[in-house]
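Researcher: Please predict.
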Amino acid sequence: MEIRTKAPNLDALRYAAPMLAAPTPALLDALAARLGPHGFSRDPHELEPYLTDWRGRYHGKAAALLSPANRDEVVAIVKACADAKVAIVPQGGNTGMVGGATPDATGGAVVLSLKRMRAVRTIDVAADLAICEAGVVLADLHAKAEDLGRRFPLSLGAKGSATIGGLCSTNAGGVQVLRFGTMRSLVHGVEAVLPDGSLFEDLQPLKKDNRGYSISQLLIGAEGTLGVITAASLRLYPKIGARTVAWIGLASPENALILLRHLERKLPERIESFELVPKSALDLVLQHIPNVQAPLAQPHPWNVLVEATVPDGSPAPDVASALEDALDLIEDAAIAANETQAEGMWRIRESISEAEKKDGPAAKHDISVPVSAMPGFVVRGAADIEKRFPGTRVNAFGHLGDGNIHFNVRAPVGAPKDWVDTSSHPITEHVHDLVTQAGGSISAEHGIGQMKRDELARLSDPARMHALRAIKTALDPHGIMNPGKLL
C-alpha cells in the first residue's frame, strides 16, 4: 500500500493551553482543611501509585493527592483550583492505556482521585436503571445488579479496578459492544463538575430531551478535559439466563465475517461477542500461559470465539444448529459443554495481551475500521508492515463485530526491552496511515491521552481539530482540566 499523507503543521493544530500556576501553600492548606486527612495527602508513598500509568510508560509528579468523599467536595476542589488557575488531573481506576490520567513531570498539578466516591445510589429494577458514583468499580456494579436479577452489559479485563467515572470519560468498549454498544450507548446521563466549579446534573432517564447540545454525551469520551464526572445513570438489562460459547476454526477472516452475518440472521439479538483470534495469538497463549489447552484438535489459521446469550426464562441459544448451516465456512468447531469449558475458552482470549508481554516487546495499536473492511485490513495491513519493517510480526486480534482491531506489531526476535520506546514510532505512524486510508480511527476504545495526541493532530481533518479546540476553550478557558491530554 502506498500512503500519501500530507504532513500538517502540528504547532498550528495543537491546542494552545493557557499558562497555569503552581499551587500555593495557602491553596494546599485550604484544600487539606476542606478534605481532611482521608481526602488530602502529600505523602510521596501515597502519591506514587497515582503518578504512573497502567502500562508503566508514563510517569509524572503532583503537588497533592485529593480524594473527595462526595460531589460537594469535588465542587470545592474545582472552584478553588479554577480561581488559582491550578491544573487538575482526574483519575478513576488508573487502568487507561494511553497515559490519559497521569500528570506531567512539572509537579504543578493536583491529582483528583474519585476512589472514595463508591456509592451505588440507586438501582431501580422496574426502570432498569442504576445511578452510580464515579468511583464504583465495574465488578462491584456487576455483582449488585446480578443480585437483583439485572446486568450491566459492559465488561473488560480490568473490571476489578476500572471505575464508572473512568469508563464514561474514555467511552470504554469491551467484548459486548457488538450487541450493546460502547459506554455512550449505556449511559442515560451524567452528573459532573464543570471547569468553573458549577455542578451539572443530568441523571434523569428521559426518552426525549431536546434542550440543545447533549452535555452528558460531550463529557463521555472527553478524557477528563471538560470536567469531572461524579456520577452516571446507567442502563441495565435482564441477567443472562443461559449462554452458549463456541470456538471455531476458520481458513480466513473473510470467512469469519460471513459467519458472523450468518449467525446474526439465524440467532437475532443473541450474538453478544464475536472475537477474532489468529493462530499467532493462540500460539502465544499456549506457550506462555499455564493450564491452557487448545479448544480444537488441530491448529487453524484463524479462530473465532462466539458467545450467544438469552435472558432468564428463554431456551438456550441453539448455536449448534446455526453452525450446521454454515459448514462450508467452518474447518472445525467446539461448543462448550459447561461453564468450566466456556471460561477456559474465554481465558484464551483474555490472556492474549499477557502472553504477548511475556513473549517480548510489541507496539500496540487500538484501532478501528469499517466492519466490512476489517478482514482485508488485517491480512493486507499485516503483510505491508512485515515487509516494510523486516523481522516484525503482526498479531492482529479483537472485536470483529464492531471493527475494533488490536493490531500489535511484535518486535524482531532478540530485540531489546526498550524496543517500543526506541524503534516503534515509524511503525506506529505507518499503521495509523493505513488506518486513516481505510477510513478508520486511530483510537477505537482506549482514547487519545498523551500517547496519541500528536497523531490525532497529524491525521485529523482541520474541522475536527478546530471543533475540539473550540469546545475545550469555551468550557475550560483557563485550561485547568487534565492538561496535555487529547489536545
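Model: The chain has 19 helices and 19 strands.
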